Amino acid sequence: MSAIADVLWQFAKWSEATSMGRMIRNSEYAFPMIEFVHLAALAVIGGAVLIVDMRMLGLGLKKTSVAQLAKDAQPYVTASLIVMLVTGVMLYSSEATKCYASAAFWIKMVSLLLAMLFTYTVKKASAAKDLENKLVGVLSIVLWFGVAWGGRWIGFGG
Ligand code: HEM
Fold first, then answer.
1. Cβ(127) to ligand 1 under 6 A?
2. Scanning 31, 99, 118, 151, which has its CA 20 to 30 A from the CA of 112?
3. C-alpha span between 20 and 156 (Å, rounded)
4. Residue of 112, 156, 126, 148 lying closest to 56 (CA atoms)
């Protein structure tokens, strides 16, 4: 096992042994309730990301400028992302060794890192120029789809 894989495995075992991980795992209602919040925040981030990506593609709310739409959607993206990260870590802590062994989980984590970087750098700068940019719109949709696909596929044992 490589050194990084071993550190990630030790971290997964440690996460599951935390009082939060044990509490969620041993509770009948905690996991579904936290996942409900995870999914509700997913609806908000999905909408706030897509409304700007569609505008970048020349679709959707064309009466509003790209820059204005991105500015109005930004607080929803950031707030729902914070909720996704907090609830995601809680869900992870209850089944960390399952996530460790899940290819879908690692595809999700890599997609999430790239999607966050892209959203707060390239996409933000492009929107500020107030220009439709189809490549930026498509790349953003592909990256966030990777996150959502990975999240759903963990549950299928992928
Ligand atoms: C914006 C970021 C995120 C998005 C869009 C996202 C999306 C999703 C989706 C679509 C599901 C499937 C829910 C279902 O239908 O069962 C899910 C579940 C899950 N997510 Fe996330 N997620 C995000 C962040 C995170 C983070 C940061 C973590 C962990 C560090 C995480 C861990 C999990 C876990 C453990 C599950 C449950 C999988 C299972 O069913 O066993 N998520 N997420």
1. no
2. 31
3. 24
4. 126
Phi-psi region of 132 (alpha: psi -120 to 50; beta: other; left: phi over 0): beta
Q: What is the pLDDT of residues 5-37, one digit of tens each?
A: 999 999 999 999 999 999 999 999 999 999 999
Q: What is the CA 72 to chain-centroid distance, rounded? A: 20
The residue whose CA is least distant from atom 19 of ligand 1 is 151
* Cβ of residue 39 lying under 6 Å from some atom of ligand 1: yes
Q: Where are the domains of the chain?
A: 3-154
Give the orientation angle of helix 3-17 with respect to helix 66-94, to 10 degrees.
Answer: 80
Q: Please tell me the pTM assigned to this model.
A: 0.91
Does the beta carbon of 85 sit less than 6 angstroms from any atom of ligand 1? yes
Query: Residue 66 has which token pair?
Result: 């790209």
Q: 87 CA to middle of ligand 1, Å?
A: 8
139 CB less than 6 Å from ligand 1?
A: no
Question: Which of 16, 83, 91, 110 best tests ligand 1's pocket when mutated (most atoms within 8 Å of CB)?
Answer: 91
Task: Give 136 Cα–ligand 1 centroid separation in angstroms.
Answer: 24
